[in-house]
Design brief:
alpha/beta, five-stranded parallel β-sheet, 7 strands
Length: 174
């Protein structure tokens, strides 16, 4: 069901216990999407149609699985902190709203088509910059694959995920 939903532009949530192979599922999905030329229709000038955010402690393992074992080369693999830093400026601009909050805005011409959020519980707090980056991506038409063994414990922790899975759903800030 993951592949057909992704091919139809749907965002997805993959929940599995630690060590069951969620990264391998993502690698197989990316390999299959590439074999079906899923990213070739992208009109944007993004050098990477996929951005894969993962904790810094597993970047090299993720690269080995995605690039080494599955041969996927069109995916930029980085960690959440790097996207919030100057590296994020490749894809994002930062705007200060009238209330003083910083709001990320994706550059449409470089915006990836798909974002994979490994350990997606890192975007559960809607007030963090990494959650705002994900929400901005979703609101600007990006597709997200969320992956985690523990995506959230309280209902409020699912706001970002719910927004991606059901964009028309109103999710208040309180």
């Amino acid at each position: 069901e993951l592949l057909p939903a992704t091919l139809h532009g749907k965002s997805n949530l993959i929940i599995g216990a630690t060590g069951v192979g969620k990264t391998f599922v993502a690698g197989e999905l990316l390999k299959e999407l590439n074999s079906r030329n899923y990213f070739n229709n992208q009109s944007k000038a993004s050098p990477f149609p996929v951005i894969y955010l993962t904790p810094s402690s597993v970047i090299s393992q993720t690269q080995e699985v995605i690039m080494g074992q599955f041969g996927v080369s069109n995916t930029f693999i980085t960690n959440y902190d790097q996207l919030r830093s100057s590296l994020g400026n490749l894809w994002l601009s930062w705007q200060t709203r009238s209330d003083g909050e910083i709001e990320p805005l994706w550059h449409q011409e470089r915006m990836p088509r798909l974002m994979i959020l490994d350990e997606c519980q890192k975007v559960k707090n809607q007030h963090t910059l990494q959650s705002k980056i994900a929400v901005s991506f979703i609101r600007q038409g990006g597709q997200v694959i969320f992956m985690s063994a523990t995506p959230g414990g309280r209902v409020s922790e699912y706001r970002t995920i719910c927004l991606a899975l059901k964009p028309s759903l109103y999710i208040g800030s309180h």
